[in-house]
Structures are given as C-alpha cells and as structure tokens.
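Quick look at the format.
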Amino acid sequence: MSNNSTNKRLLIGQINGLFGVQGWVKLFSHANPRKNILSYQPWHVEVDGQWKTLEIVKGRVQGKTIVAQLKDVNDREVARNYIGTDIYIERDQLPKLPKGEYYWDELTGLEVVNTTGVKLGKISYMVDTGSNNVMVINGEKEHWVPYIEPFLINIDMDTRQILVDWDEDF
C-alpha cells in the first residue's frame, strides 16, 4: 500500500556523495536538463522514516556532477548522514506542461493498445535512448515502442489508455 503523500511526490534525484569540507553534497539528478534539480525547491527527503524538508542555500554544476549546499548542513560529518538519500519534490512544484504533453510518471501504468485492438500491456517505465524516448510496455511480453509519431497515435488520460501503431509480435 502506498500512502497518499508519496503519490504526490516525485523522485527527482539522490544525494550520492560529499563535496569539499563545508558540508556540500554531490547530487545525482533525474531532472532534464540535470541542473534543473536545483530549481525545484524545497526538497523532501525521508530520514529514519520521517519526511523532512531540505532547503538549498547554493548549488551549481561542477564538472560532470551537480553540487549543493544544504541549509544547516555545515560540515562533512552532518552531510555524510544524507548520502544515499532520495530527493523528492511535490508534484505541484513542476511547471504545467502544454496540453498533450505529459511527464513520464504520468504515463507509467497506462494501458497500451494497438490499432487492431490488442492490449500490449502497461507502461512500466520510459527510456531516453538519446535519439528519442521509448515506452517500455509489459504484458505477455515486453515491447519497446518509440514515444514518437507515427507509432504514438493517441493518449487518453480519461481512459488511461495509449493507442499505438505497433504489431503485437514485434
């Protein structure tokens, strides 16, 4: 059973290392572009089973990683406690997308049906292949369907169904 608070929260990254001696942390970001993790504030983290809000004092891109200074975290020992902590934001912290555009987590779990009416399964997750995004659909077998026209025909959020032009044997 997932409680309601987690449904409204999105996993946006993770604190995955220490940076410098003043308590700065390194971040792994799921945001696109990655540095956007710094613009979604505040962050919500679960520490010992309790939700806690973290404020960012400063943050920047540092080489291939992103680093941030957290409020009231002033040395490495305090910062060390946060390593491995997942960073969440509230859903309403995200900008509203134009009509017909969706965040990946909104598509997860939608049923995918092809043009001949065959149910391919549900979207397990999305993958960015570099050239385009792909829906990973799990049903009787796994289908990797490009999230672009001409394969993507229609998304109906009311019925939670996506119509695709994709052969069930492929």
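Next, a different chain entirely:
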Amino acid sequence: MIHNRVRVAELRAHLGRTGSEPGSGSVSVCGWVHALRLQGRMQFVIVRDGTGLVQVTHRRDGGPLEAELQALTPESAVRIAGRVVEAAQVKLGGLELVPETVEVLNPAATPLPIDDRTGPEQRLDWRYLDVRRRPAAQLLFAVQTTLEQGMRAYAYAEGATEMHTPKLMGTASESGAEVFELGYFGRSAYLAQSPQFSKQMAIAAGVEKVFEIGPVFRAEPSFTSRHATEFTGVDVELAWIDDVEEVMAFEERMLAHAIGRVAEVHGAAVAEQFGVEVTVPTTPFPRITMAEAQEVLRAGGWDREGVKEDLDPEGERALAAHVRRTTGHEFVFVTRYPVGIRPFYHRRAADDPGVTLSFDLLWNGLEVTTGAQREHRHDVLLAQAAEKGMNPEPMRDYLNAFRYGCPPHGGFGMGLGRVLMVLLGLGSIREATFLFRGPNRLSP
C-alpha cells in the first residue's frame, strides 16, 4: 500500500480529502505522539513532525480506532490517515485531523527518560529525544545547515577548492600537548588538532585557495561552556597574499554572506524560538592591535599587575563591550599577537619582530577564530621552530613543503559551534552540538 505522506505544515492544502475519494490518494501524517488527552467522550492526540503540530480528534464509539488511540504512548512513531477539517477552536492552525486509520510504527516505552524539567546534562544523555522534542533544537541544525551553505557558497564564488584532509597524523599537527594519541599498527598516531599543516601543503601543491569544514580534535581537559574535545572547524587558506589583511577581509565577507543567508531563511523562526534577532554585520569589522587592546583594558581595571600576554575570557568580554560602545559593532579583530603566545609558523612583523601577523576574531566577546599570515620561507621556519625549542625531525614532511617554492599565504580556523552559540544566544557549546564530546563525555 502506498501512503502519500503530508507534512503538518502542508495540511491546509488537503482540507476535506480522504483516502476513500477516487483519485485523491491517502492523507497520512507521519510523526510522533506529542501529547494525549483521553477524555470521557473524546480522544485528542497531538502529533508532531518536523514542520509542526496537528490535533487528531476522535469521538469515542467503542470501535477499533478508540482502542488504538487509547493504547498510544508519548513519543510513539505513528502514521495516522484521515480527513483534514476546519476547526477554528483549535489553536494549532485552526485544523484537525479526523482519523480513519492509526498505525503504530514503533511504540515508545514509558515513562520517557527526560521531560521538560530535565537538566542539561541528563538531556545530553538522551540527545536524540531532546532534539526531536524541542522545535528550537530542530531549528538549530537547520540554521547550521544554512550557515555552512552560505560559507561554502562564498568560498566557491571566490574560487576556493574544498579539500578533505586526513585526521590521522604521524605527528602532532601543532605544537603543544593537546593531542590524542592512539595505536596505529604497532606505532603511534595522533588525531589532527587542526587541518593547518594539510592546508599549507595544499597551497604548496598549487591549490591557490583552499577550505575545509570538518572535525577537529583537542585533548584539552577544559570544562568551560565554550570548549569541546571534538568540534567542527571551518578552515581557509589563501595563497599569494601580500598581507594578513587579505585573510581578515576574506573571513569578514564570508561571515557576512553566511549570516545574511541565515537571516533571510530563518530570521523570523530564530526570533520566535530563541528571542534573538539575526543581524547581518557590516564590513569591514573593527581592528585593534593586541597592544592597543591591553592598553584599553588596563585603563578599565583589567590585569592591574600587567602580567597577561593574552586575553582571558574576562578581557575578551570587556574588549567586546568597549568596541560595541565605540563602534556599535559586535565583531572585532584583535591583531599582532606577541611571538611568545603564537605558533612557530606565524609570520613575524617586519616593523616589530616581537609580534606576529596574526589575529583572533571576537564576536560579542567570544573568540570564534584564530588566523595569521604564515611564514613560508623554509630557513625562517627552521629558525623559529628552534627558537621555541622544537625538534624539526618529526615535522620533516611539513617543512619539506616549504623547500620548493611555496608562495606567501595565510588563513584562519573558525569554530562552527562557537559561531552558532553567539548567533543564537546559547549559553554553552553543548547546546550547539548534536552529540557533544568533552573530557567526561564519550556517549551517546
């Protein structure tokens, strides 16, 4: 038997149609039992699919339909066929479905493990139930899809090539201990902390603009609202640049385009579900050097001892507030970070060798991006690695990419979950991730 499924949002176009009418096809709704009101004379079942809710209304008559509806449990997967009728008294779109057949495709056990009062950590234990029960969670992933589409569309329009780089590495992809080690046929391998080295090899391979949207792994024992041990990174690398400014300009235009698409497609729904207005940022974004930022912040009481080289979360929030007051902008690029807190492959400024041609992008006080112009000269890379006490031998394959004519280049890495956090006004990256991974969470 062929079932012509109708989504809840499309039901009004099917008023009065039933499967018994010649040539009409069956009017079937497939979804989950959202709520049950089983009264003395009437049975009301609210069915939910990905587009909305519909009320199924049945007058008790002692027949088989009554028994089938009475046996339903919340969150059971059902297919209900019947007649769509006007019902002005029904708040769910002024329609109701008068059932003719009820098919339980998969009954839900009772009681459910979560409800509307369940705390966030337990909801993560049952994330698939949590997402499907909450329209806001469903919307989040629709927004994520549109956001990624917007980023890809901009990158494609700029002539960028999408690459898929390996996540198994023979050596740590960046300096530091924040790396997952695993056995690999009798030797050690590592999960990639970043596609950084692979992106640069693509530049050396003659791919002039490269981007990737894929998984990133960080073995950070951090339990903050913005850290995860696995997340989705948006990475871009651009060849033949004259200055790091070209990298920042690419990113701000990419973000403005992608956020514009979200505003166009989901703006009204985001306002309804999250209470947030999706505002398309103007370009260019404000820029401020790290030295200038620290001067501004210390004048306001941050880091009174003057010992911090980098911005901590408090400093990032305070700087963002300053930028909003003085420019009205939610974004700010913080540039020219000190050599001591940047990787060996960041290029150093010719006018001040103590700083790098690098940047972080803050959005409403949250760091969402790190980027830089890269050092593309082999001899300089070796010297900078040695200065940081690094052994070049494990990085031989990477360093070899710069021995045979690698052009000047730069790029950035953006955390997709952090962008979604700010875009939708979420309190934690856990909410912006389908199945979150952190130091104490490897399931479901």
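The chain has eleven helices and 18 strands.

See the schema section for token definitions.
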